Amino acid sequence: MNSANNYTIRPAAPDDAPQLAALVRALERFDHLREEPLPEAIARIQAALAGGDERSIHVATSEAGGLVGYVAVHWLPYLILRGPEGFVSELFIAPAARGRGIGSRLLATAVAQARARGRSRLGLLNNRRRESYERGFYAQHGWQERGDMANFVLYLE
Hints:
This protein is an alpha+beta fold. The protein is 32% helix and 23% strand. The protein has a 5-stranded mixed β-sheet with strand order 1-2-3-4-5, sandwiched between helices. A hairpin with an 8-residue loop joins strand 3 (67-76) and strand 4 (85-93). Helix 1 (17-26) crosses helix 3.
């Protein structure tokens, strides 16, 4: 079994869009992504990768160059905190590459970026039915689940 050391973590580049599109289309629970035509998915992802300084996307690639995971972080201003917040909006690993420490390395990259940017905290959402929640992935990395907050969503599509 390959260890996390056999993978490279680096900033995502526009050329990564086809592999990122393939990865997100392969993720469970996201059937709507498989319905999107592949050229549209690639164009959408390329646009996100060119999004500027308000977000960071890092990818994990194998020694052979295949993309096996990514993390996306949005950098949000807050007036009620001593410093802005980072929000880990996505962290996904290809099913065949899970359990090798790649997610831990991607999460550590997000934390290091937040510290380098002077952020006061990082936040994220984790579906309680996802395997990562059930095995306590984020808790094992020192993240605390906030019991006093409710997560509300207004779907606009």
